[in-house]
Amino acid sequence: MTNSYLSTIPFREKIRQRIKELNDVPYYTAPIQVGEYYFYAYNSGLQPQSVTYRQKGLTGKGEVFIDPNTLSAEGTTRVRLFGYSEDKKFISTITRKAGSDWAEINIMEVLTGKKMPDEING
User: Fold this and answer.
1) What pLDDT, on a 0 to 100 scale, did the predictor assign at position 17?
2) What is the domain count for the chain?
3) What are the residues facing 112 on neighbouring strands?
4) Short-list 61, 111, 52, 60, CA closest to 82
5) Mean pLDDT of the chain
6) Is residue 78 situated within a structural domain?
7) pTM higher than 0.70, yes or no?
8) Distance between start and end Cα atoms, the chain
9) Range 30-41 average pLDDT
10) Are 82 and 34 in contact (CB under 8 A)?
11) Mean pLDDT over residues 24-28, rounded?
């Protein structure tokens, strides 16, 4: 019933476009240092999920470490850094699919980005 009413509003598409313009703002998260690497998330503005980058030192070039936008066609899989090992060789990630409260925790090598076989689901 609501959608049938809203679809009759003649300026609805203009509102949708304006909201899209206002949300099309790139942003970065604050970096975290793990050993000699810095990790940060970046979103170009209209990406469904932010991409996590890894950069060696303060002057290194950022490279994609995890792109959750490639993990689901709908763009509903979210991946965030969760913590790292004391020796700073491994970093953990937490993955949530389709807005679920259920999470998957994975361990990745900081140097290579290789995912370790162990994971925790719950």
Assistant:
1) 93
2) 1
3) none
4) 52
5) 94
6) yes
7) yes
8) 37
9) 97
10) no
11) 94
* SS3 call for 54: strand
Domain-located, residue 2: no
The rounded distance, in Å, linking the Cα atoms of 122 and 111 is 27
- Does residue 65 sit within a domain? yes
pLDDT digits (tens, 9 = 90+) for 54-66: 999 999 999 999 9
How many residues does the structure list for the chain?
Answer: 122
List, in sequence order, the alpha helices (H) in the chain. Answer: 2-6, 12-23
Q: In whole angstroms, what is the distance from residue 112 CA to residue 41 CA?
A: 18
Contacts 24+ apart (CB under 8 A), 11-17: none
> What range does the domain containing 82 cover?
24-121
Q: Which of 20, 40, 22, 21 is nearest to 30 (CA)?
A: 40
CA separation for the pair 115, 122 (Å, rounded): 18
* Residue 5 within any structural domain of the chain: no
pLDDT given for residue 103 in this prediction: 94
Give the model's pLDDT for residue 1: 81
